[in-house]
Design brief:
- By secondary structure, this protein is an alpha/beta fold.
- About 35% of the residues lie in helices and about 30% in strands.
- It contains six helices and 13 strands.
- It has helices at about 10-20, 25-45, 80-90, 140-150, 165-175, 200-205, and strands at about 5, 50-55, 60-65, 70-80, 95, 100-105, 110-115, 125-130, 135, 155-160, 180-185, 185-190, 195.
- Strands 1, 4, 5, 6, 7, 8, 9, 10 and 11 form a nine-stranded mixed beta sheet that branches. A two-stranded antiparallel sheet has the order 2-3.
- The N and C termini lie far apart (about 35 Å).
- Bound molecules: 1-O-pyrophosphono-5-O-phosphono-alpha-D-ribofuranose and uracil.
- Uracil (URA) binds near residues 197 and 202.
């Protein structure tokens, strides 16, 4: 069974409060999502393996550390996942970025895939799939199916807010994929929205309705 981590860093929790607030406008919402994504990237990379390298400082030779191991790939689920990409790239600028386009059919709540483009070396990368919302779990399950079908074998999922229902579905479908969250909320409402959540993440990020 996969693990679920909720990042309780005070800065993440503070900023998430303003992301949730319905009075937060598009510009500020975007900036806050970007900042929280950076902070979450800082936490999610905590366990990356290091290797020793020999360098010369202006004072003399030194043995220091750089990140070793697999190369990273980010995969935002379109659209709302895009809002978190730049914040993560600020800390991991060398990461390649793939895209999976999915939308949730408003009637059936089932994910509909409309676009997939991943880096070539899928088997060699450690992927972080990004989406602000894990609601019924359908979109994340489908996005990860899509990655696995193309050869990805090392995947994490990073979301701002999740519903317990979505976490359970994701864990059943992909027990090898650990989940990293800023908050685990109470439940889904009858329209499949996370309660209390933050509303429609895509609409709030892009100013649509
Ligand atoms: C939202 C969100 C997730 C999905 C979560 O996207 O960004 O991708 O819903 O819901 P689920 O867990 O029930 O699948 P949406 O379908 O609204 O598309 P958008 O990002 O284009 O707005
Ligand atoms: N998608 C969103 O953007 N918000 C929710 O609460 C659920 C799905």
């Amino acid at each position: 069974m996969s693990k679920v981590y909720v990042f309780d860093h005070p800065l993440i929790q503070h900023k998430l409060t303003y992301i949730r607030d319905k009075n937060t406008g598009t510009k500020e919402f975007r900036e806050l999502v970007d900042e929280v994504a950076s902070l979450m990237a800082f936490e999610i990379t905590r366990e990356l393996p290091l290797q020793e390298v020999d360098i010369e400082t202006p004072v003399g030779p030194a043995t220091s550390k750089t990140i070793a191991g697999k190369k990273l790939g980010l995969v935002p689920i379109l659209r709302a996942g895009l809002g978190m990409v730049d914040g993560i790239l600020k800390l991991i600028p060398a990461a390649k970025v793939g895209h999976v386009g999915l939308y949730r059919d408003p009637e059936t709540l089932q994910p509909v895939e409309y676009y997939v483009k991943l880096p070539n070396d899928v088997e060699e990368r450690e992927f972080i799939v990004i989406d602000p919302m894990l609601a019924t779990g359908g979109s994340a399950v489908e996005a990860i199916n899509s990655l696995k079908k193309r050869g990805a074998n090392n995947i994490k999922l990073m979301c701002l807010v999740a519903a317990p229902e979505g976490v359970e579905i994701l864990q059943e479908a992909h027990p090898d994929v650990d989940i990293y969250l800023a908050a685990m909320d109470e439940k889904l409402n009858d329209k499949g929205y996370i309660v209390p959540g933050l509303g429609d993440a895509g609409d709030r990020l892009f100013g649509t309705k």
